[in-house]
Each structure stands twice: as structure tokens, then as C-alpha cells.
Amino acid sequence: MAIETLQITHVRIASHYEAHRKIHSVGGVIDGVRWELTESEVIRRIESRKWSFFVRIGDLPIGVEIATHNDRQYIRTHMDGYAPSSLIRLAATH
To answer: Is the pLDDT of residue 20 over 60?
Structure first.
């Protein structure tokens, strides 16, 4: 079974002060068509093991993973610590 892999190129930020609650949705472009998924939908798709997501930092593809803080799941990149800094930076560029 093939895994669908999507590149995240933009992030919509929620108005919350806690870093692990800042991401509302993420999106990108496939064949010229924009897509957008809520954070909870990305989590469901990663958990299904049929989807994976990544961001590009320079020329490097960096995978997106599920993390948990205070019993709440959220997404971050493999390079991030507690705060999903690599994803939050994408909000500032769009």
C-alpha cells in the first residue's frame, strides 16, 4: 500500500498563547491546486499510516510527527522540541 506524502507550505495560526495549541490548519499545493487540513485532520491521517507530511527547510525535507503535551495531541516536525517552531515559521511567510 502506497503512502500519500504531502508537503506543508503554509500554516494558519490559532489565537492561543500555548505553543502546542497555536496551529489551526496547514496546507500546500498539489498540481497547482491548494489544499488545507485542520490540525486534527492531519493527526487522523498520520495515525491511519496512509499519509505523511513534511516541510522543507532549505533543501531538506523534514517529516511532521504527532506529539503530546498535557494529554493533547498536536503536530510538529522531527526537528522541533516542545514548540512546533518550524511549522509556526511557515505562517510568517504567507
So the answer is: no
| Structure confidence at residue 86 (pLDDT) | 75
Residue 18: per-residue pLDDT: 56
Beta-bridged to residue 75, according to DSSP, are: 66
| Residue ranges of domains in the chain | 4-92
Cα 85 to chain centroid distance, Å, stands at 11
Q: What is the pTM of this model?
A: 0.84
53: left (phi over 0), alpha (psi -120 to 50) or beta: beta
**3 touches 52 (CB < 8 A):** yes
Question: What nine digits make up the cell of 54?
Answer: 513534511
Question: Would you mind telling me the total number of residues written for the chain in this entry?
Answer: 94
